[in-house]
Amino acid sequence: MRDEKNMQVAGLAEDAVAGNPDEAVGTMHVGAPAPLPNLNVIVAVCDDWGIGIGGGMLVDNRADMRHFVRHTKGHTVLMGRKTLESFPGGQPLKGRRNVVITRDLDFEREGVDVAHSIDEALAMVADDPEVWLIGGGMIYRELLPLCTHAEITKNHCVRPADTFFPNLGEDPTWHVASSTVRDDEGNPLVTPEGIPFEFVTYTRE
User: Fold this and answer.
1) For the whole model, what pTM was predicted?
2) Which residues pair with 168 in a beta bridge?
3) For the residues 196-204, what does the mean pLDDT come to?
């Protein structure tokens, strides 16, 4: 699971740094935000909605990794280039269509479909039945208004962070559809280091 162990660094700080010519693609306008039925988002957050620091995850949560695999395997994952580079060897996630947004016109990677703008990326995945945004920070912020479904792993702690996900609890357009706080055997969800967490599904109309 080496590729899966790094997916929640999709909230990488590098992707959100202003002035980075590669990730500045996230500032392009995508037109009026009309939700797309095939566009979903998946991310792990802390109680303050922090998702990463220095390009790394805030909480080591293997159950969250399995959760990520279960939802994204066999589907399309959409990300910024810095997120791809954070994976082992900079290689795409196996068993998925990997679409990367970058302004680098020379960028190419085996097993990756490259888009040079948000509009181009959306056109590329328009016919894909299920698309998951996996970061980084700028990609999340720009495309969240187009999503209709969010899978949020809430780690109940606060850790130093330099990248944050929008607080869906403060957005009246998003609603909690379900929340899971126990595993299949009825045990509370807790990380090996003792941090309680839950899997929350949000939907928006």
Assistant:
1) 0.85
2) none
3) 97
